[in-house]
Amino acid sequence: MSTAKQDKIQQHYDEVADIYDNHYDLPHGRCYHTHLSQHLMQSLPKGARLLDIGCGTGLFVEKYTSEEGSAVGIDLSRRMIERARHRCAASDFTIGTGETIPFSDNTFDAVSSLLVFSYLRDPEAMLSEAYRVLKPGGAIAICTLGKKLLTRGIPALYLLSEKIKVKHVVMKDFGERYYDEDEMFGIFYDAGFSDIRVSWCSFAHIDMIDPLFQFARRVEPFVEKRIPQLAYNICVTARKPEK
Ligand SMILES: C[S@@+](CC[C@H](N)C(=O)[O-])C[C@H]1O[C@@H](n2cnc3c(N)ncnc32)[C@H](O)[C@@H]1O
Predict the structure, then answer these.
(1) Cα separation, 134 vs 118, whole angstroms
(2) What are the tens digits of pLDDT across the range 207-240?
(3) pTM for the complete prediction?
(4) What is the 116 CA–ligand 1 centroid distance (Å)?
(5) Could you tell me the distance, in angstroms and rounded to a whole number, from the CA of residue 218 to the centre of ligand 1?
(6) Residue 120 CB less than 6 A away from ligand 1
(7) Distances (CA, A) of 80 to 17, 21, 105, 136, 156
(8) Is the dihedral of CA 56, 9, 152, 239 positive or negative?
């Protein structure tokens, strides 16, 4: 992805920061986001020091720190960061890119990233930076739209919605890149991570209308386990080796 695309992402999220939470923090959105967050949190240490890359308005940081632990969020968009600071006053947030993380080596116990990886201009650089700032033995968990049956038409849909000027918090042509299991495994492996696990998550999509959403919620556990080709998000968890 070019620098121009990254500028476009930043500008877009600056523009939608005020309405972002209407999408992800109201009933369908909250249900969808909580489901993804819980899936990732299972693989992250509790009560640890976390870096959330592409933290947006702080939805994941809020969930992660709700009981214990501390978190730092980094995001391209200044306006999204302002919302995050408002939401999570006890956490730290900084403007920046996941590809150049402004923290020292071996700083964090855990790194997370939700709904960001498909935007990355240089995913290898982001993983290399995540590896660098993780302490030995630290965990990483990411989740993003994956390359699957039901996501194939999404780039065309986003392009169309941009052409007809639909104001939507994510539907825009950012040249997103979707990955399958082998591609994800390969880039995490090449970055040096071990214990790499790839899974599929979510069938009830935020933009489904009721009663389809409610039906999809009910069958979601079955779909994720038995027919993962119908799930939308690919999740990867891994560790930085101790030595
Ligand atoms: C769909 S939102 C997800 C926000 C948040 N993770 C959540 O779960 O609500 C994508 C976010 O990623 C940020 N982003 C995109 N590319 C990025 C990059 N290279 N580095 C840091 N943040 C990035 C955007 O500014 C935006 O806030």
Answers:
(1) 21
(2) 788 888 899 899 999 999 998 888 889 999 999 9
(3) 0.91
(4) 5
(5) 29
(6) yes
(7) 5, 10, 26, 30, 26
(8) negative
